[in-house]
Design goal:
Blueprint (H helix, E strand, L loop, with lengths): L1 H24 L1 E8 L7 E4 L18 E8 L4 E6 L7 E4 L7 E9 L2 E8 L12 E8 L7 E5 L2 E10 L8 E4 L2 H6 L1 E6 L5 E7 L4 H4 L3 E7 L11 E6 L2
Parallel strand pairs: 1-6, 8-14
Antiparallel strand pairs: 1-3, 2-4, 4-5, 6-7, 8-11, 9-10, 9-12, 12-13, 14-15
Length: 238
């Protein structure tokens, strides 16, 4: 009797896993990042259905992100704000089941711009690794090529030559005991070496990003006043 119960539980578990796997194939993941300047909080409709953006509930503040599931039947994404019922723009995309996508909202009012990509380069880790991964995207529309260095080695560029809308590949950073004590402070500089902004992974933050993929988003405007000065914010991909 015990054996039969165990076999039955195994069969049910396999059935549940199979159903769960099939459901995963029916949706895609979409991470939406708002770096667009001068707009009210933006709203993204990824349901595939028409929406009145004045009453549409979801909104995304500047320099924040959100993750959404998207049905594969969805072929259109609309972006709007509470100021108008109609969308500011629409995008077409055929989603792949289980695929991960990133939608960056950028530009400066009244010119809203987007970058929509399917993620193909997430880092892989070995069990023995003690590291985290960082990449950078430049969404400062009036910038020249930008670079980032670490505060502990200001003469070495970790990322360089980043023009507007350009995204660097992921780069791994070790998290051994000495690295964890020091933390990681990234310094954003223009092509003349002028310091524009910084972002710090403090020692206390590092455990949360171990074995993870992270994007540093460069946003704002060169010469912009608060809150539109050049800045860096973190997007945790997974």
């Amino acid at each position: 009797m015990k054996t039969k119960i165990v076999i039955l539980m195994a069969m049910l578990g396999g059935l549940f896993y199979s159903c769960k796997k099939e459901k995963t194939k029916e949706i895609a993941g979409l991470q939406i990042v708002n770096a667009a300047i001068g707009f009210a909080p933006l709203k993204v409709n990824a349901t595939g259905n028409a929406a009145n953006f004045i009453t549409y509930p979801d909104s995304l503040d500047y320099a924040t992100d959100v993750k959404r599931g998207v049905l594969l039947s969805t072929t259109s994404i609309q972006v709007g704000s509470h100021k108008s019922a109609a969308p500011l723009l629409s995008l077409s995309q055929n989603f792949v089941g289980g695929g991960m996508y990133s939608l960056y909202l950028t530009g400066q009012s009244p010119n809203l711009e987007t970058i929509l990509t399917k993620e193909e380069t997430y880092p892989l880790y070995n069990v023995a690794d003690s590291a985290f991964a960082v990449r950078v995207i430049n969404l400062i529309s009036n910038s020249g090529p930008l670079k980032l260095n670490l505060s502990r080695s200001v003469t070495v560029n970790e990322f360089e030559g980043l023009t507007y809308k350009q995204q660097a590949n992921f780069k791994k950073y070790p998290l051994k005991a000495a690295d964890a004590r020091l933390g990681y402070r990234f310094q954003l500089r223009d092509q003349n070496g002028n310091l524009l902004s910084t972002y710090t992974f403090f020692s206390a933050d590092l455990e949360a990003v171990r074995f993870k993929a992270n994007t540093l988003v460069l946003c704002g405007q060169i010469g912009g006043a608060f809150p539109n000065q050049p800045r860096i914010f973190l997007v945790k991909n997974f």
